[in-house]
Structure formats: C-alpha cells, structure tokens
Task: structure prediction
Amino acid sequence: MEEKKSRTSIFQSKYKREIITKLLAYILLGTASIILLIPIIWMITTALKPLDEVYIFPPTWIPKQILWGNFIEALTFLPFSIYFKNTAIITLLSMLGQLMSSSVVAYGFARLRAKFRDVLFMLVLATMMLPSQVTMIPLFILFKTLGWVDTFKPLIVPNFFGNAFFIFLLRQFYMTIPTELDDAAKIDGCGYFGIYQRILLPLIKPALATIAIFSFMWGWNDFMGPLIYLNSPEKLTVALGLSRFTGVYGSTAWNLLMAASLVAVLPCIVLFFFAQRYFIQGIVITGLKG
Amino acid sequence: MEKGKSLPSKKEERYFYLFISPWLIGFFLFTAGPMIASLYFSFSQYNMVKPPQWIGLKNYINLISDPLFWQSLKVTSIYSFFSVPLGITFSLIIALLLNQKVRGLAWFRTIFYTPSVISGVAVSLLWMWIFNPEFGILNYLLWKIFRIKGPAWLFDEFWVLPALIIMSLWGIGGGIVIYLASLQGIPTELYEAAEIDGASSWNKFWRVTLPLITPVIFFNLITGIIGSFQVFTQGYVMTGGGPHYASLFYVLYLYQEAFLSFNMGYASALAWILFLIILFFTLIIFKSSSLWVYYEGTRR
Result:
C-alpha cells in the first residue's frame, strides 16, 4: 500500500513539475518572440510616419497619421523599379543556372561510379571552406579583361557551374532514392541522362525547391558582388540602390529609408511564408548532416 | 546488371565525368585558377595599371607593421569571439524551450526564423535606425524599462562592436531550426532509461541531450566562425569601419585595399592570411572534436 501511495505522489510531483516547466517555457518563448519582433514592428511603423513624427521622443508605436505615400515617395526618388528589374534578372538567371548545373553534377556524384569519385567529392566539400575573398581579386581581373565589368555577367555566369553547397544537398537527396528505380529504367532502355531527367529529377522536386529558394535569397540579398561589379546608375540592384539611398537622402529621412527597406525585403518574406516547409527542410539537411 | 561492388564500366566512368563536367570546369576557371593567381599576386606589387611585379615576401612583411591590419584582425576576432558562442547558446536555449512539446510550435518557429530571411543592406539600415542614440527604439526601451541612458552605439568607439554583436543575435533563426530538428531526433527511450535511473532534468540535459547534439554544435561552430570572419555589409553600410577604425572588419579592410586603393597584391596577401586563419580555426576545432564531440556508435 505504502509503495503505491509514494508512487502516485511521485507521479503527481512529476505532473506538477511538467506544468511549471511548460509555463516557464511559454513565458520565455513569448518574451523572446516579442524581442525579435520589435525591430520588424519598428520598421513598419517608422515607414508609415510623417518625418516630424519620426523625430519625437518618446516615439509612438502607432503613427498618428498613416502616410502610405511614403512608399511611393521612397520608390520614385531613386529608380527602384529599374533596380527591382535588374535584381530579378540576376537572381532568376542565377537560380536557373544553379538548378540545372547542381542537379546534373549531384546526379553524377550520387549515382555514377568512377575511380576518383570520392576524392573529387572531397574536393567539392573542401571548396566550401575557401573564403570567396581569396578568389575575388583574380576573378575581378578576369572579368575585367573579358569586358564584363558593369554587366550582369560576372554575377550570373558562375552560377551555371554548380555550387558546392547545393551539390552536397542534392547528392544527399539522390542517395535517399532506391537504386532499384534506376535499374528498372535501365532495363527499359533508359540511358544515364534519361534516368536523371525522367526518373530522378521529378523525385527530388522538394530538394530543387529548397535550392531555388536559397539561391533566390542569396542572389536577392547579395551586396559585395554587385558592389564590385556594377557602377552605372541604371544597372544597380536593390541592395546597392538601398545603400546609395543613405548617401543621396542623408540618413535623416528614416521614414523613407524604412519604407524602401521594407519593400526591398518583401519578396523574401513573402517567399518564406509560402514556402516555409522547403526553407526548414534545407536548413535542417545542410545543418545536421555536415 | 551492374550491382554492388562490381567495377564501374568505362562507359559509366565517362558518363560520370560528363555529368560533373560543369563543376569540374567551374572549379578550374573560378576556383583553382584564381587561387594560383591570387597566391602569385600576394607576392607581387600590382595596381592593375602595370603588370604585376614580383616582390617576394614584401607584402607579408608589410602586414606585420601595418597597424590597420592588426586593428582589423582585433575587431573581427572580438566580434567572432562573442557573436558565435552567444549565437549558439541563445539558439540552443530557444530550441530546448520549443522542444518542451509547446503548442503553437509552427508559429514560434516562423517568428524566430523570419529575421534570418531578411538580410543584407535592408537589415543594416533597420539596425542603424534602431541604434540611433536619440530617437532609436533601443535607447528608448532602455530608458523606459531600466531607466538607463543608452550609449551612442554606432557612434561610440567602445559600443559599436557590442551593437553589431547584438544585431547578429537577431538572425539566429537558422540555428534554432537546426537544433530543434536535432533535439527532436533524440530517441525518447534514452530519456526514459535515464528517468528509471533517477536522473534529474538537469542531469538528463548534461548526460543525454548535450552529448547527443554535440555533432550539430560542432558543425555550427565551424560555419559560424567562417561566417563571422567574412562580415562585410554591416561594416560597409552602417559604420564605414568607424568610429576611428573601431569596426574595421577584416574583409572591409581587404575591400578598401583592393577596390579603393587598388593595392591588389597587398589585398591578395590579406586574403591568404584570412584563408589561413579560417583554416587554423577549423583545424583546431576538428582536432579538439575528439574531446567533446560525441558520435553515436563510436566509443570514446
């Protein structure tokens, strides 16, 4: 009897402890959420304020007067529509290049056997460690001699030769698909390219989506690349245009700066909300299996 | 039919090289070739007007007596030393909290990850405004909640780095997602076994959870250090390396030497030192990993 009693009390105290832990978890998570959300809220509210309300103390959380016109003013002061078009061209073509090249290369590493395959794959992984600054200067000189400076080519063309990170990610995906599928296709007279294109490519669509998203994000947010290669005002990207904004407007018109920044990050946020699953998948795979 | 351990046919080998040819060509054109060129430049004087001129170790010797080189190294090391461990700690804590079978997990995950989605120039501008000494939200909240008069942040030689470290913690969402996934992968039997042995929550964390996720911490430590040594945008957009070089990040200095002063040789030497530093840290972490990283299926 006594044993039974003590056991229920153990259960009770365990139950109690669990409730307390959970409550504590909610409080801490709630606090962390608020702290992380404040900058975004601050960005939105500033973007909607008239300039004289930006410079008051204490600051207001909800603008007394909501100025949607800030967005129009911010986007027309500098030719942002051109920046958006430029960024879209660079980003989408880079994405296309990555999807084609990385998926082909990863198929080779995942499915075909050759004497030096493992050595070459180690080399792929090793290039991930190399800081891009080491190759930056010779590449600049190379593209300058080719007459590619102040064009989009230096930012697009290298993407058609695969990226170590994506090759690694896709290879991991190919490896999860049973080779029996390849064998069956082979019996039906499918060549290596047919297996890649007709059997495996449709099966790794989720991974391709992940790559498309990451490649989009990197292209969209890239700053150093455009900074080095693009000069003409009509060739700037959104990131580069934003950085010039401070110079042109001075860092005083914070409402317009925040409005422009908000529009600049909007494509990434929208993409994230609609394709969250692929984001999470991509981070988890690359972060866990390193 | 080819199976298992049979030798690859000549045809298969040929196709292998065909399939990986984009990467192979890219490797020679955009990685290996430029690496050799950059190594050569690092031993030359080169301003892009005249052809590079071999000067031996002079660039590297000049580095030793260059105060800005040491300053940029110091700034970057301090930034890395604080932002990487703090980032790992905070993302791990949040992941542990999320792993307490809380409701609304998807919501929390979205909130924590959203800041990582937006990066680059827009975020730098946003934080410039947050850190504004007079009208920024941070100093307002410090005053409102703690009655502390906040510092001038980006305009203060001492506070500029802490400011940028705080800003880096805003983007820990990726880490949270990774740690959460690895925590969810720990088999519950292990906790049940520990409970039968009478382990407290604290013990369970130190003896079960932490050892099992050390491989993930290990991986994030390496990528974190590599990333923090390549910080550029914040320095370029927010501070321009100032005030008085207090936020002169290594890559910012490299960029200035290469593309503003056109000292391509000197900048190449800087790039190779950066590579060696990254290599050094990676090797140290790798070497030390046998002491603290636990891999399932191997005995220590």
User: Anything to note?
Assistant: Chain A has two domains: 2-69, 78-288. Chain A has a mean pLDDT of 86. Residues 190 and 217 of chain A are 36 Å apart (CA to CA).
